[in-house]
Amino acid sequence: MFARSAVRALAQPSARLFSSTASRNFKVAVLGAGGGIGQPLSLLLKSDHLVTGLSLYDIRGAPGVAADVSHVDTASEVNGYAADQLDEALQGANVVVIPAGVPRKPGMTRDDLFNTNASIVRDLASSIARVSPDAHILVISNPVNSTVPIVAKTLEKAGTFNPKHLFGVTTLDVVRARRFLAETVGAHPSETPVTVVGGHSGPTIVPLISQSPRGNEVKGEKYHALVHRIQFGGDEVVKAKDGAGSATLSMAYAGAKFTNSLLRGLSGEKGVVTPTYVRSPLFEDQGVDFFSSNVELGRDGVEKIHPLGPLSPEEQKLLEACLPELKKNIEKGKNFVQ
Ligand code: NAI
């Protein structure tokens, strides 16, 4: 038994990157597969054995990425699609991941990307509504706080919006929070999981460090520095890349990690819980109807939206700063589609 599983692991070396319980076939489409995120994300998805079909689309370069990735020795079928083949790329997709759009340059906020990315995301959402209306949609393109409401509104207009199937990918904030807390307290990242709630930009990112097993070891100045680093960690990468873009490799890792969580939920695995930005009732009474909190993922996508749990006074303040900003970002997205 042991020997057989060892042989299987060798035959599929990278399948062990992500834990899983396979029980269904999943076709995943990546829109923007030729880009800085799209390429490594496609590679990581090729390594995920829950993915049985991989459909790579971009307005530039996707067939080349597909040919390259398709040589990796896992079982999934890979196809690349050129600019005029979006419909073919979406055909039969269960999950559509969207990293299409322009990234930040030094000095830019995520909101500065709105003018370019809003229309890209809206047009892709229209095609999804037409060709694969039941697909689960994972939005990576920034500003996520606004692009997710844009997708929702576009689908709503097309009559296909299912709030259980739409996710803003905030996993990179969760990955950064875990890693940075581990560095701060000198622990292994396995000991420092952090739930991150709110949205995905600067002050809308609210890490709930007090709920982490090692979180209460960080106080005063150290605490404020840690929160700032989690909220603005993306800027470190933008600055270091010096005009060549924003986080791509860590984002691809985060995108593949979230996709794997969703596929595990869709496969019927129980107890898959992770933060993600969804249509949420938690702060609806304050006009904030999209919010990231821990979400249980199940056979039909969003199964249960968890409440935030106990917050420290500092976290309460962070939340108060988050909500009005997030509300503005959501309204901006919705108004774009009207
Ligand atoms: P990139 O410029 O390297 O790649 C974007 C790709 O999108 C390009 O290959 C481009 O040809 C393609 N594209 C543009 N319009 C398209 C369309 N209509 N259909 C299909 N493909 C299209 O940018 P990168 O670094 O990959 O970033 C992509 C997006 O992800 C940006 O908006 C960035 O801000 C965002 N991002 C999100 C993060 C998150 O945590 N959610 C983290 C890091 C980046």
TrEMBL record:
Homodimer. The keyword Cell membrane does not apply. Residues 27-168 form the Lactate/malate dehydrogenase N-terminal domain. Pfam families: Ldh_1_C, Ldh_1_N. NAD(+) binds at residues 32-38, 58, 117, 140-142, 251. The lineage of its organism: Eukaryota, Fungi, Dikarya, Basidiomycota, Agaricomycotina. Residues 170-337 form the Lactate/malate dehydrogenase C-terminal domain. This is Malate dehydrogenase. GO terms for cellular component: mitochondrion. It is an enzyme of class 1 (oxidoreductase). InterPro entries: L-lactate/malate_DH, Lactate/malate_DH_C, Lactate/malate_DH_N, Lactate_DH/Glyco_Ohase_4_C, Malate_DH_AS, Malate_DH_type1, NAD(P)-bd_dom_sf. Belongs to the LDH/MDH superfamily. MDH type 1 family. GO terms for molecular function: L-malate dehydrogenase (NAD+) activity. Its EC number is 1.1.1.37. It catalyses: (S)-malate + NAD(+) = oxaloacetate + NADH + H(+). Substrate binds at residues 104, 110, 142, 176. The keyword NAD applies.
